[in-house]
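Q: Is it fine to ask for two folds in a single conversation?
A: Yes, each is treated on its own. Send the first.
Q: Here.
A: Result:
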Amino acid sequence: MNGEISNSANGSKKVLIIDDEESFRLVLREVLNELGFNSIEAENAELGLRAFEIERPSSVLLDIHLPDRSGFDVLQEIKKQSPKTNIIVTTGESIEENALIALRLGADEFIGKPIHPLELKYLLDKFTTTEKRTESANGILRLLIVSDAADGLRDFRGFINKENVQITNIFNLDDLPRTLTTRHEIAVVNVASINIKNVLESLRKSPLHQDIPVLVDKTRLDFTGVLAGIMPRFRAMPCSPDELRVLTQRRIVSLKEKRRSNHLL
């Protein structure tokens, strides 16, 4: 397909695929169809932006490496036009580095290639069924901080602007199950390697926290051996202290923008 936009969407569950690999788009088209979503396809940035303006899909699957422009540029332009559009960045290399950049620029999620159908379904279902839960009943965004040390993330906690953000601090991991009975919109984790698996497992087993962003301070962790692959398994993002601050603030701003946008509808 050269210079054309392919559209098989006829309902409200539209997903725009922007990727220059025709075989990858074909696979995604079939997967999306089986999952009950309608696909729109574009092979480069120009066609992708044109398709977005015409179709206004609810979600976008965006490749970082496009032949005419960077996917990061497309991400920024779509978010500028429509902050509430859900963008999933796809990448086949340097997943952690590219994902950090994408999240800073406003991406809602990232997913590595090859894409697993169940993981894609989870992300798309999350967007279509839980969007209204991104704010607390009282309008205050809740941030969960989990650490196994009383002084854990002290600088980070001081950085967060507490206006309209309610922070729950957990320093005794035995208190975590009880705390997870209340939904939080973001979780930041700072624990030793021996505790990280149990903390992430508890978060993802909680029905109220299955789909929230989880940012993990990587300075205390060794990702070799038993911890290899644990971050993708629990859909958690390893971050440096600076990245924790940048991404948390970006998530807070993004959630507030979505809330304002939803209130205007």
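Q: Second one now.
A: Result:
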Amino acid sequence: MKKIVLATLLALSSAVASAHTLWVVPSHFVLSSEDSWISVDVSAANMTFVPDRGVSPNNLAIVFPDGERHAFAQSYQGRRKSQADHQLTMDGTYRIELAGPARYFTFFQQDGERRRILANKDERAAQLPANATDVLTTRSRGRALSFVSVNAPNDTALALSQQGLELKLLTHPADVVATEPVRWQFVLDGKVAAGVQVELSREGELYRDDAGRELMTTDAQGMLAFTPPVAGRYVLEASLTEDSTDPLADRVRETLTLTFEAALP
């Protein structure tokens, strides 16, 4: 019972976070000198780039242009947003990523109430109450990304892990320009991901009557094509729920956000 109560409390906390879009936004997307410092804001918010809830930076990492992964030199968690700083010591493209390991949740009905426990399909039998019904296990994972390029961009930090929902950046983030087409491809566990629901939003939403959000869906090859209408900062938010090939889950729930900049044409 303690595990069920704990999971219920975690579920409430997770529900608050999941109602918001999680994003990481660097102070600069393109820099022209080595040894520059980058500052990164992290928040979960309903409105684009308007901080609402600070998020722990413990799982925030930076991948250097040579592929080496580092923790941020310093970080701070605030009420509305968290912040981290790091020195960029080489030319190329850096990957900023906030991501944790996949988690397994088993949902079930008990005495007319919907509950969940932290357990995969192998673990759930020992934790489920005897009268549990409508049992379903979900593997849940999310990540928030951004990329910063110093002088000459490269592709090493863009490499995919083949785990979870990922984005193949056919148009390099440093090459995104307003009014010019962008082509990216979604993959799930290394395979093309069709039918991914995507929402594109841009900065300044607080000062517009029309939020200006664009809803899109990837095609049969996982492709996403769009054209940023104006220069500025954008957030792309993607989600996918489908039946699972993971033997530890009945379905997978994946989310991904990417913050990027469209340069002036």
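Q: Anything structural to flag on that second result?
A: Two points. The domain at 2-103+138-262 is CATH 2.60.40.3880 (Immunoglobulin-like). The chain is about 5% helix and 50% strand.
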